[in-house]
Amino acid sequence: MEENNSYRKLTRSVTDRRIAGVCGGIAKYLNIDPTVVRIGFLVALICGSIGFWAYLIVWIAAPEEGR
Fold first, then answer.
1. pTM of the full structure
2. How far apart are CA 31 and CA 38, in angstroms?
């Protein structure tokens, strides 16, 4: 049985960042436009505080690219 070690890792972007690189990192991980992720976080923030808490948790938990 062959073992495949190629997996993607969620990291915060160092090149595409506005505050902490969370949205840029998520967009790179999902292979979508970072603007879509930013709008999603904004909508989640407006609809309730889940957007803020989700952003904060990813900011703390995800390492920066290259680390």
1. 0.79
2. 14
